[in-house]
Amino acid sequence: MGESGCGKSTLGRTLIRLEEPTSGKILYNGTDILSHDRKKLKWFRKEVQMIFQDPHSNLDPRLTVGESIGEALIIHEIGDCGSNVARLMEKVGLPPDFASRYPHELSGGQKQRIGIARALAVQPKLIIADEPVSALDISIQAQILNLLIDLQKEYGLTYIFIAHNLSVIRHIADRVAVMYLGKIVEQGTTDVIFSSPLHPYTRALLSAIPGKNTERLQLQGEVPSPINPPKGCRFHTRCPRRMKVCEELEPAVTGIKHTVACHLYK
């Protein structure tokens, strides 16, 4: 979780190699996927799928719903296309006759259900969900979240769930990673992060939750450019507890189950 523009979606797209990183490694089951050739990358994308943020732009308007879902089944040569499409549509709560419809005939919530069905089609182990409910009406968001939870239980899925809505995160996540300006500044279980945050940025985020019995922490200044981030701790230009060392050295990550990157916890 983190503010808009902090790099959450870029990280998600990079993990599945829709974006190429300028440096570093992406390890999946101990293997760097940046070294994968076309054949290995096809295998990887069968294991790892993505649900995109905008349901209105991620479906090809020229394809019917059935063709859109069936595309992945054909590419990965998975079973009978027609029967699998019908089964997947049932799993995401859509009637079979929707298979002949086009995207412009569907609502935002229905389109996102199609996006979920497409991700499920290749029987992945991991799904990267990039703010899958942020573009939907409030009345539809809970339905999609509950669908994702039900599917996770049924298929034993792991989600990397990208979001900035704190209520959504608390509802769906088991563990939380807090990102600021392209860096993970704190990680822990959802209960620990929401009840005992350590990093000043995490505390400021959580103080914005309506009804929370804590004083609202107002951050000063603007978020620096990710193209030219500050030296030292990237948060020091806005941190109410900054020290001289914060301006000079990037903090190391400390902790085991609950980790934080902050000079206050050396």
Automatic annotation (TrEMBL):
The keyword Ribosomal protein does not apply. Coiled coil: none annotated. It holds the Pfam family ABC_tran. One of its GO terms (molecular function) is ATP binding. One of its GO terms (biological process) is peptide transport. Gene3D superfamilies: P-loop containing nucleotide triphosphate hydrolases (3.40.50.300). Residues 1-206 form the ABC transporter domain. Keywords: ATP-binding, Nucleotide-binding, Transport. Belongs to the ABC transporter superfamily. This is Oligopeptide transport ATP-binding protein AppF.
